Structure formats: C-alpha cells, structure tokens
Predict the 3D structure of the following.
Amino acid sequence: MPDLTHGDDAAAVNSLRSAIMRLSRRLKHQRVDESLSPTEMSVLGTLARCGSATPGELARREHVQPPSMTRIVALLEAKGLVRLDPHPEDRRQKVVTQTEQAEAMLEESRRRRNAWLAGLAEGLDDDEWAKLRAAAPVLEKLVHL
C-alpha cells in the first residue's frame, strides 16, 4: 500500500497520475466520431462491455444523475447509436441497447486507438515493454476499485 508520507511512494503516485492523465488526453484525440462527447462514448463503451441496461442502471455505472443520462440516451438515440426497447418485466421502463452502427463505430475507435498506442510502444525497449505488459492488469484493477 502506498505511503504518501514516504517520498518515493508520493513521487510514484504523482508520476502515475500525471502520466495517466496525459496519456488519456492523447488517446481521446484518436476518436473516430468527433461529434460524440467523451460521456456519450463512455456510455456506448459501458453498453458494449455490460450489455443492455435501463437509463437508471447506466446513470449509476457512469456516475451521473438520472436526468443527465436521459438526455445522453436521447442524443445517442437521435444519432442512431442506441435504441430503446420496452423493459421485459416493467413496462414503465425502457432498456437501452446499442445499435450495429454503434458497435461498428466502437470497433473502429478501438482499432484506431490500439494502433496509435502500439505505435508509441514501438519506442520502448524489450524490458520496458515487458514491464508495461505486466502493469496492464494492475492498472485494470485500479479502474475497478
């Protein structure tokens, strides 16, 4: 566990935060569809990973208020990226499902971002690449804590 009162741990946490933020900003510029906001892309990514969900479930997963998610879903529906279906058990609710158009767009976005990141990784030596590959599961775990 990092000890932020320890100089080396504090420096490592600061360096990690800074590097992740800068890399994230650069990755965002590799988007396929510039008309979508980062939040809209995130919602589509959540639907791709987790499957169909109600707007309320999406709001919880995305850490936004339900009225905001209702607006986001309406924008995505207008763009043909999601469809709203009746909830199988509660007719008062709707289930949000991504469309084939959204799946294709996300796949192209992943392909573009992966290619960009792979291009950067070509600048690493074998030892650095091995360390980065080993760190990937740890970074993934941080995302879910």
